[in-house]
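Researcher: Please translate sequence to structure tokens.
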Amino acid sequence: MSVFSKLKQFKDLRDQGKKLQGALAGESVTSHNNGVALTMDGNLHLTGVAIDNEMLNPTKKEKLQNAIKDAHSDVTKKMQKIMAGKMQEMGGMDNLFPKK
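Model: Translation complete:
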């Protein structure tokens, strides 16, 4: 494989990454867990946190901490599934690295 074809593959990969980033820009996912709701965008940035008033009781501090961790884990998994689906819609990376 020539240097130029490798450079083209890298350019194609970069273009595909930009296309994926654009497709994910409008995505948003929310996860609810024990009185905690977290919202994440397609860039994996946390864009919203909502906590039920009953969870603000000092005696429920550990429960609140666990609920935040669980909700964050769940919302991240949901967004990763969306990202994987978008990548598959775009043909994955199979077209960039042809089999010999």
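Researcher: Any highlights?
Model: The chain has one domain: 3-89.
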